[in-house]
Amino acid sequence: MCAATTNQEPGINNDALVDGRRATSTTCYTDGSVKNVQKLSMLHRNFNAFYSLDATDNFGWKLAALGDIDGDGVVDLVVGVQWDDDGGSNAGALYVLSLETNGNVKNAQKISMLYGNFNTFYTLDEHDGFGLSMAALGDLDGGGVADLAVSER
Length: 153
Hints:
This protein is mainly β. It has no helices and ten strands. It is globular, with a radius of gyration of 15 Å.
C-alpha cells in the first residue's frame, strides 16, 4: 500500500481513494509502514470553504501532484471528479488545490463547464466523465504553471 510507483513522490500513495467524497493521502517510512494519513473531504482539510460536493461526484477517483504552482514551497494537487454534474449529468470536473504545509486546502479552483473558464475552449456533454484520469505534464507552454493532460470517457 505504501510503495511509490512511477510519477509519484517517494513515500506517498497518490491513489489511496477511500470513497467518492474523500481522498486519503498516506506517507510511509522507507520500510513501507504507515507514518501519517490525511483525509481530504467536505468535512476535513478546509475544502468546504471553497466548494461543496454531491454524494455521487466521485471526488478523488484520480489525482495528480502538480508541484508547487503557487510558489509557497508546498506541493499542490489536481483532483478528478468524474461524475460532477456541471454542464450535464456526469459531465465531470477537476479541482486544483493549493495546500498548506499541514494538508489543509489554502485555495481551490474548480474547472468544469461552469467554473475556471473551461467553456471558452471546450464543451462537456452529459456522461463525458471529464477528470476520469489526469497527469501533470510540467510547464509545456512556458507559462510558469504545470500543464495537465485530462481524459474523459
